[in-house]
Structures are given as C-alpha cells and as structure tokens.
C-alpha cells in the first residue's frame, strides 16, 4: 500500500479563499481534483473514501470546497455550474503553480452537480485535463459543453438511479471524446449499498491510472 501525506491548503484569488485537502502519496503519477455536488465539500465521506483509494494507487488528490461557507448556504450558488467550473479552473491553475504538483497531469472527479462543473471546466480548458470521472453525476448540466470535451470521460451510475441513468445515457451520446458508461448493479444514487462505492473507486482508479501518465513526480 502506498504511503500518503495530507496537507491543508488554501486557494485564494482576490478576496476569495477556498479551503482544501491535498493528498500526496509517494511517487504520485497524477492528481485528481474532486468536484463535490449539492453544496458538499472537502469533508464529503464518499469522496474522501474514493480519494483514499486513489492515493493508495499512487494518485494525488485535491478535495476542495468549491464554495465558501456563505455561498454554500445559497441554493442558487450550489447549482451555479458556471461558478463551480470557474472554481475548478482556479484549482487547476493553483496545482500548476504549486511546486508539489506542478509536474503532475490533472484529472477531475465530479459527483452529482459537480460532474456538470467538471465537464464544463474540462471543455473550457482541454489542453490541461487528461481524464474525467463522474459518479452519480449530472452531466446534462454541462450539455452545451459536452461536444467540446476532449478528455477521456467515464460516467458511473447506480443501477437503481433510473432518472440519472437516462441523463447519463443522453450525455454519453453527446460526448465525442473517448468515453465509457458503467452502471453499477444494485446501487442507488449515493452508492450506499455494501460494496458499491468500492466499485466506484476501483473503476475511477483504473481510469485515472490509464490516462494520468505524468513523467514528473510529486515533491513531498
């Protein structure tokens, strides 16, 4: 099992300050930025579970509050996909300037509404993002951008999450990049059923390991 260190970080721009947790395993081969959904943040238990799995497989992770505490209480901001995508692009720029991660290729992991933000951000900056994974995501929220996504994209949906399955199937047809849709049997929207979140983590880990092939290594 790969050893990993976690560091509290703060990403700032003007008066804006976003709190995050940077996980750095030894010999990281890439870094994955998490886009949480529905006002969730860096302490999301499900995304932390996936992040720890990725760290064990030599992938650095950035769990970041895309909204300030005040913004997270505003439902309009929670569903403001343009704003969330802006914050992901800010995080991407920070990783590119941070000495510990500047040599690592970047991927996005988006959950629920965060998946829409991840796909929009990937479309707006295609040269910088190497892979995208969506868990129970709302890719339909990025519909105008889907045809412009160039990063290989994996959509993971629970088998019992029927409305979201349909949204993902429609989004899948609009994507022109390398893509895959996986439906996890017996899983509902939050993948709370035994063993289902482990399947998400395994699929995500394989996807990112395939496409994040940094020549550089994280400096710890």
Give a description of the structure.
The chain has 220 residues and is of the alpha/beta class. It has a single domain (4-211), classed as 3-Layer(aba) Sandwich (Rossmann fold). The chain contains 7 helices and 8 strands; from the N terminus they run βββαβαααβαββαβα. The protein has helices at 45-56, 69-72, 75-78, 81-97, 113-124, 162-174, 196-211, and strands spanning 4-13, 16-25, 31-35, 60-64, 106-111, 129-135, 153-158, 179-184. An 8-stranded mixed beta sheet has the order 1-2-4-3-5-6-7-8, with helices on both faces. Helix 5 links the parallel strand 5 (106-111) and strand 6 (129-135). Helix 1 (45-56) crosses helix 7 and helix 4 crosses helix 5. 49% of the residues are buried. Residues 216-220 have low confidence and may be disordered.
CATH fold topology: Rossmann fold
Q: What's the end-to-end separation, in Å?
A: 17 Å
Number of helices: 7
What amount of the residues lies in strands? 25-35%
CATH architecture: 3-Layer(aba) Sandwich
Residues in helices, as a percent range: 25-40%
Q: Spell the H/E element sequence.
A: EEEHEHHHEHEEHEH
Mean pLDDT over the full residue set: 93
Given as residue ranges, the uncertain stretches (5+ residues, pLDDT < 50) are 216-220
In the sheet with the most strands, the strands line up as 1-2-4-3-5-6-7-8
Describe the sheet with the most strands: 8 strands, mixed
* Helix/strand/pairing category: alpha/beta
What Rg do the Cα atoms give? 16 Å
The global form is globular
């Amino acid at each position: 099992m790969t050893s990993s260190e976690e560091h509290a970080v703060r990403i700032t721009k003007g008066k804006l300050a976003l709190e995050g947790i940077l996980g750095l395993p030894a010999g990281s081969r890439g870094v994955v930025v998490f886009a949480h959904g529905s006002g969730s943040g860096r302490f999301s238990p499900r995304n932390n579970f996936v992040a720890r799995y990725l760290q064990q497989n030599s992938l650095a992770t950035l769990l970041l509050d895309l909204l300030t505490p005040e913004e997270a209480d505003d439902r309009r901001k929670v569903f403001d996909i343009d704003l969330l995508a802006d914050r992901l692009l800010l995080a991407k720029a920070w990783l590119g300037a941070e000495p510990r991660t500047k040599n690592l290729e970047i991927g996005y992991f988006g959950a629920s509404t965060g998946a829409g933000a991840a796909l929009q951000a990937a479309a707006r900056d295609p040269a910088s993002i190497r892979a995208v994974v969506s868990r129970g995501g709302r890719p339909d929220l990025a519909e105008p951008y889907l045809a412009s996504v160039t990063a290989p994209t994996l959509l993971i949906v629970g088998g019992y999450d029927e409305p979201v399955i349909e949204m993902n199937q429609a989004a899948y047809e609009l994507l022109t990049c390398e893509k895959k849709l996986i439906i996890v049997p017996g899983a509902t929207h939050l993948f709370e059923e035994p063993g289902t979140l482990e399947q998400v983590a395994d699929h995500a880990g394989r996807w990112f390991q395939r496409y994040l092939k940094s020549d550089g290594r994280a400096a710890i």
